[in-house]
């Protein structure tokens, strides 16, 4: 009898971590950081609720910190097996962990705690990775295998189908990881499968529908034109991975088609600079339209006015550039990074605009701004919020409710049970109810530490 343990991503977005026990094997799917309010982040310092030395294999869906962030601690605690991931995910994991260790060290200092991991531990972790391509069958044992499929979320992201063979009978469990939205993506679309016995499905946007992709470009165009007219500065807090590359691609398209003038656009994020170089290395993961542009000679991550500012000196020099100008910087939820310095400087001026293109989790500064805070505090300084606040929902790298239901609907054989994970309680509850109503399938929102027999 196979058992499935839920050790994260239950009624919250972050901390994805699922343990599958089958035969004598223990397989971990993702090992992510808990992010958001302090009570969530405290869990990162707790011991694992299982013995890392007993884990045979780890399967990673993608390289966001809420799916990989506790891997160094797993190795430090004695894990010695293989970690399977797609080639881009492996490259990104190193970059993301290197970048996050500074932020985590600062948080540990404020909390009078030991940093979660150090630089040498990241290097040690990388030795355990094994690259796996999409659709490549990997045998963990004679009776347990898995395959990756395109999730369309970020470059190299995958959902996982694990097959357990019991004599002539086969049992399949699908872990969605994070599923992508096709509205504005430069990646190949989310794949669908037609058979699964059990499904774990993410629910970050399980209670809403995205705008059309064309609306996103229209909003950017209108916002930049408004910024130019006002002589202001447009700030866009962005994740360094996927969101920033989507923005650069669409700005390139708008400039080349003369829909906006070539105003100065600063990518003020060292990590975005490094990640964009990896994107340029794996262009075979892009969708057909983008690959056709590249074949025709279009450098999709370059256009007049665009400047990457990886060094501190270059970042500070942005202040000397007269508006209008556009600044894209991390972090996407305004929890750290260079965007904080720009928000301190520009949020108090009504000529300026803050355009949100990312999910804003509970407890983050970005969420407070999004919800209409009139005053915020950054680095112990009170900042009045007078700039215009706008948002674009269709830039989400997560599928919306319709996308999630469509993906599940492609499974022809009736699913025995669906577990709704990786979403706050409200969207998870809405998606679970939608699944019951439209598909007639049992849908459950697991609790932390829950064990289910499959």
From TrEMBL:
It holds the Pfam family RMMBL. Residues 14-231 form the Metallo-beta-lactamase domain. Keywords: Hydrolase. GO terms for molecular function: hydrolase activity; RNA endonuclease activity. InterPro entries: Beta_Casp, MBL, Metallo-B-lactamas, RibonucZ/Hydroxyglut_hydro, RMMBL. This is MBL fold hydrolase. Residues 244-369 form the Beta-Casp domain.
